Amino acid sequence: MNGYNFTERVRTCLALSRDEAVELRHEYVGTEHLLLGIIHEGNNIAVTVLENLGVKPNDIRDMIEGVVKRGIRKDPPGPHLPYTSRAKKVLELSMNEARSMNHSYVGVEHLLLGLLAEKKGIAAQILVDAGVTLDAARAETLNILGPETNAQSRTIDTAPSARGQLLGGGHSYSFTERVRKCLTLAREEAARLNYEYVGTEHLLLGIIVEGEGVAATVLQNLGVDLNELRDLIERSITPGKASNPIPADLPYANHAKKALELAMAESRRAGHSYVGTEHLLLGLLREESGLGAMALTSVGVTLENARAETFRVLGAEMPAGPLFTPSEGALRAQPLRRVTPRLRDILNEACSYTRRVNAETPVMIAVALLRHAEGAMRALLDHLEVDIAALLDKLEPLMAAEVAATEGADLVDRAKKLRELFLLANAEAERTHDELCSSGHMLVALVATSPTVAEAFLAQGFGVEDVRREFARLSG
Asked: CA of 183: how far to CAs of 164, 201, 249, 297, in Å?
């Protein structure tokens, strides 16, 4: 490492990485600590890249700390901690990234790209799970540093992440036509007000202008006059400075991207297979810091009362608190290793179908996985040319029967089957040398252990070896 021109900021990040490892009582510096060091330093291009891609650094920290356990040593480890082989590989790949950009130094931005290029470490898996891909991060780095940095294209849209697909066209997500209309109206409102971007305030204006969705009904039922709310928003914002902006060309601001992500989270929380205007409204409220949330709060609309009224309007029961965490649900008594946040969400959803600990089945997990196939999982299914809708048509009725039979089911037998499933998922992660068990590992395990899931895939011409081989190819 001494033979390379690492910037002082990188050296600071590396020192902070050791501090993070010491704080966690770990006896090594892994890729997760390198990423925590970047976030801890905070004032660097890598953090700017993450923020520009719609990712909050503190959210990444929370995701890491959610899967990395503290060490068991009572006395803190010494300051001279060794790098793991993966961390050493990251430093080498960071140098490669600097060379590929014709840079004479290694900056924090190269360190971030090295973490992503390594692919298998906890840091890479966390970043990909958050929607940050190597191509997108590299493009945004070049975008920040300027066109003279490299001759390649600077547009992030040439290699969209799961988040980019959502914001660019929504093909990976089941947005209702009414939501799509609201998003179009939001762009038109932003252009009308001469803004260069679509913010949360414009998303809220889109809901108001559309005026007929569940979200509008919820607001009116909570005593909000939509016209008065629109006036309040327009009085609260400063005039835009863009000259004749074209609505279709306007990008989403980071707060707006986050609101859309949270809308999807609200849909999953409710067990819905679509994202409607009601979820968009709840996403705006959950985002909290945008002008949309501020305007809603000022007229007495909170996340709690909006969520309760949404379920009342839809005629559905409120979920009984937050979704289960792995320690409370399927993972409590199961030997599953550390999982990616996305797989954890899928397991939580499968657990929520029954509201009973260890009562979920492989079919329920398969349905949750297929309903929310995003990012790498979506790419895997697309490469296999899997008809997701046909699979769900076959599995969802079987799942519904299993859910209905939960009260009289042999939960011991179900727990045994989960144990077998999770043991094989662990083995698949070991096979691919991944530190975290991902949705891909779980899919291979599902097809291998569940006759019902295997039959559904075989009906489309795919066996477990086909899934395993394609997953290995894409993740390699």
From this structure: 15, 12, 13, 21
Which CATH architecture fits 167-314?
A: Orthogonal Bundle (1.10)
Res 165 pLDDT > 50: no
Give the domain ranges of the chain: 8-158, 167-314, 341-475
pTM of the model: 0.45
Strand partners, 198: 252
Amino acid at 106: V
| C-beta separation of 68 from 92 below 8 A | no
Question: Which residue, 381, 205, 366, 184, is CA-closest to 284?
Answer: 205
Domain 341-475 in this protein, CATH class? mainly alpha
Domains 167-314 and 341-475 share a fold: yes
Structure tokens at 16: 């902070």
The answer to whether 68 and 122 have CB atoms below 8 angstroms apart is yes
The two three-digit tokens of residue 112, written as one number: 């971030």
Q: Give per-residue pLDDT as tens, 227-238.
A: 999 988 888 777
User: Where does 8-158 sit in CATH, by number?
Assistant: 1.10.1780.10
Pick the closest to residue 16 from 1, 31, 38, 32 (CA basis).
38
Read off φ and ψ for residue 240, nearest 5 degrees.
-75, 165
Q: What is the mean pLDDT of the chain?
A: 79
Residue 236 to residue 219: CA distance in whole angstroms: 19
Residue whose pair of structure tokens reads 């992500």 in the numeric block: 261
Nearest to 258 by CA among 106, 419, 59: 59
| Nearest-angstrom CA–CA distance, 355 and 60 | 28
Measured distance CA(83)–CA(91) in Å, rounded:
10
Q: Which of 182, 165, 222, 33 is nearest to 111 (CA)?
A: 33
Summary count for the chain: helices (H), strands (E): 25, 0
Tell me the two tokens of residue 472. Answer: 């290995």
Q: How far apart are CA 326 and CA 347, in angstroms?
A: 8
User: Position 180: which residue type?
Assistant: R
**Three-class SS state of 232:** helix
Q: DSSP readout, 52-95?
A: HTT--HHHHHHHHHHHPPPP--SSPPPS-PPBPHHHHHHHHHHH
Q: Name the one residue in this structure whose structure tokens are 């929380």.
A: 269
- For 423-434, write each residue's pLDDT tens digit: 788 788 877 877
